[in-house]
Specification:
heterotrimer; A mainly alpha; B alpha+beta; C mainly alpha; A: 78% helix; B: alpha+beta; SH3 type barrels; 29% helix; 25% strand
Chain lengths: 141, 123, 405
């Protein structure tokens, strides 16, 4: 009997996973995505700071910021922003593009051991990241 | 003289040969029906074909066909006569030497054809 | 070896072997998302693990049979197929994440993509199992795993507010993000209470030829070893709570994790992190691969022992060989290791009832345990764990969808 009880929840769960992954964009999901992008930007800032203080080696810091830049670019092309009003979506797209570019430049700066350049980019990323978090998204249904 | 329940105490128990080596688990118990006298326990069966049959008739016949294709001379599970059983505790001790049976035929084949070809396999 | 040394080694093994990819990743995500609010989940997981491991050790010491042995012998082959198939699938997923963890550690210091490291890491893991003995796996890597104490040292270095940390040890309802909170709670429990750990521990008791005289060591190793091991995971969680949470950083990649220790310990922090991640995951990979072979060999009655050369237990040895080879593939293909970790922790949590419910029955079977059957304390504990496991099995997949990733 036990062996028959187990497969049922698993099959049901597989269906649920399938359905959920084709979820429609909602303002709630957009807010989560915005927060995750801001978190990625803040992580890149922290990685660069660790590199600057000598705690993290360039190999790691460069790779990590590169990945974070790719993640920000990916967020820019995500369909989730379609749930928002045009002006908000435009602001977010602009912000993500800038963040993605800055993070990529940060990656190069670390690669080339350009400390002043990296510090400038880091400060800019931190500020733009905070601006992204501050873009208001109305999640009330 | 204590009672013994075949399924509870014999089936699926670890088989141990006369040297104390593991010789598989009891995959099946075979009863013998004869016209004169009540059914009695005839053999213990060890083998993948027996296991497959316990999971389902179709699986069993498929395993049997595979065994025919690959098994050469031996296509059925190995049978240990009941009268070779020496003790039944948490394990079933039998008076055979596993090396002299074909219980470990797959083990031996894998050792010769795979393990010994891998680095460090010949020890 | 004197008993005192055995006890010390047992505790060290428990502490050094506790942290691995799953417990690290879930602790870091929990700390980043909810500061100290989920410490209770780590403590609950470690406590349940301690009880279950003690039982499995006692079973093997008294009966000289392992948990997989007993699962088939007591419940029959048809029943045994369920834990066999379920556990092999879970172990395959978790093994892939551990190999991924080692590969990521190597990527961090070399710049070479983790995908390229998957096969070399798999080969090394296989080679150590092939040529090594049980003692090497059990003690060798676990003692090296003590490097993970760096998380405790790092956490203390940041002077966490002990009042708040202590309050986190008490279970409470989430103030926000309920789905994500419970998803992480389930993942943490899935990471701590891993069935492969009981199978490994029980096989180890037979490999080390434990008997009645080892019951005290068993209890201390299980209690102190797993208990203190939990403190390492709490350390990682507290670090994440102090480093990531204030900055609004959510953990969505292993790449962020070195920051936990660099923030606390500077350059040494980076070295210690990479060493911790690499060693902890490598040790876990060894354990899981050999446990998958134990499960096969013990279920089918084959000859098995890590102390035997592979030529003498070919099916057992080739089992972990095949398992390691297959587990390299997802990492080679470039799977997102953190996503795989989250999924496998939840699947592991959901699979618990399949193992703990039979264990409850076995631990009260006089044919196995003679006079050492569970007392009322142990039975209460395992019954509570069975109920918890039931809840986890029901909620884990919905939570994975609602709160995960």
């Amino acid at each position: 009997m036990r062996s028959r009880l187990l497969p049922a929840p698993l099959t049901g769960a597989t269906l649920l996973i399938g359905l959920a992954s084709c979820g429609r964009p909602t303002p709630r999901k957009a807010a989560d995505a915005r927060d995750r992008a801001a978190s990625t930007a803040a992580s890149a800032v922290m990685v660069a700071a660790a590199w600057d203080s000598g705690a993290a080696p360039g190999i790691y810091a460069s790779h990590a910021t590169g990945e974070m830049s790719a993640s920000l670019w990916k967020a820019d092309s995500a369909p989730v922003w379609s749930a928002l009003p045009d002006s908000t979506a435009a602001a977010i797209h602009a912000s993500l593009r800038v963040l993605g570019t800055r993070a990529a430049k940060l990656d190069s700066a670390i690669d080339q051991e350009d400390r002043p350049g990296a510090t400038r980019l880091r400060t800019s990323l931190e500020q733009r990241g905070r601006e992204l978090s501050a873009i208001p998204i109305d999640t009330t249904p | 003289m204590r009672d013994m329940l075949l399924v509870r105490d014999v089936l699926d128990k670890q088989l141990v040969d006369r040297r104390g080596e593991r010789a598989g688990k009891v995959d099946g118990v075979v009863l013998i029906f004869s016209p004169d006298g009540p059914p009695r326990v005839g053999y213990l069966e060890v083998g993948a074909v027996t296991l497959a049959r316990r999971l389902g008739r179709r699986l069993g016949s498929w395993a049997s066909r595979l065994a025919h294709r690959w098994g050469g001379a031996h296509t059925e599970s190995y049978r240990i006569p009941w009268n070779l059983v020496r003790a039944i505790t948490l394990e079933v001790s039998v008076d055979v030497d596993v090396e002299e049976t074909r219980i470990n035929v797959i083990e031996d084949w894998l050792r010769v054809h795979v393990v010994e070809h891998l680095p460090g396999g010949r020890e | 070896m004197s008993r005192l040394i055995e006890i010390a080694l047992g505790i060290v093994t428990g502490i050094g072997g506790f942290l691995e990819a799953g417990s690290l990743a879930t602790a870091a995500q929990a700390g980043a998302g909810f500061r100290f609010e989920l410490i209770w989940a780590v403590i609950l997981g470690a406590t349940c693990l301690a009880f279950l491991v003690e039982m499995c050790g006692r079973l093997s010491a008294i009966s000289k049979h392992t948990v997989p042995d007993a699962l088939r012998e007591r419940f029959g082959f048809r029943f045994f197929m369920v834990p066999l198939v379920v556990m092999q699938l879970v172990m395959l997923m978790v093994l892939a994440t551990e190999l991924g963890g080692v590969a990521l550690a190597l990527q961090m210091i070399s710049g070479v993509s983790y995908r390229w490291w998957s096969v070399p890491v798999g080969l090394l893991s296989w080679a150590l199992l092939w040529k090594g003995t049980f003692g090497l796996i059990e003690k060798g890597v676990s003692v090296l795993g003590l490097v993970t104490l760096a998380f405790v040292v790092g956490a203390l270095h940041l002077h966490p507010p002990f009042g708040e940390v202590a309050r986190g040890a008490l279970p409470r309802l989430p103030a926000h993000d309920g789905a994500q909170y419970w998803f992480l709670a389930v993942s943490i429990l899935g990471a701590s209470i891993s069935p492969y750990l009981f199978f490994f521990y029980s096989a180890g008791a037979v490999e080390d030829r434990w008997d009645v005289s080892h019951l005290a060591i068993n209890r201390i190793t299980a209690g102190a070893g797993m208990g203190f091991g939990g403190i390492v995971a709490v350390g990682a969680l507290v670090l994440a709570g102090m480093v990531f949470h204030p900055a609004g950083i959510k953990v969505d990649s292993y790449q962020q994790l070195p920051l936990l220790l660099t923030s606390a310990l500077g350059h040494w922090g980076f070295v210690l992190f990479v060493a911790s991640l690499g060693i902890a995951c490598f040790g876990a990979a060894q354990e899981i691969a050999v446990t998958s072979a134990y499960l096969m060999a013990q279920g089918f009655g084959w000859r098995w022992s890590e102390n035997l050369p592979p030529a003498e237990d070919a099916r057992f040895s080739l089992s972990y060989t095949a398992m390691t080879a297959v587990a390299c593939l997802p990492v080679l293909a470039g799977v997102d290791v953190l996503k795989l970790t989250n999924i496998s922790m939840v699947v592991s949590a959901a699979s618990l009832p399949v193992v703990v419910l039979p264990l409850l029955v076995i631990m009260n079977d006089r044919r196995y345990l003679r006079d050492y059957c569970n007392g009322w304390v142990a039975n209460t504990a395992v019954t509570a764990i069975v109920l918890l496991a039931g809840v986890l099995a029901v909620v884990s997949f919905p939570l994975l969808i609602a709160g995960g990733g």
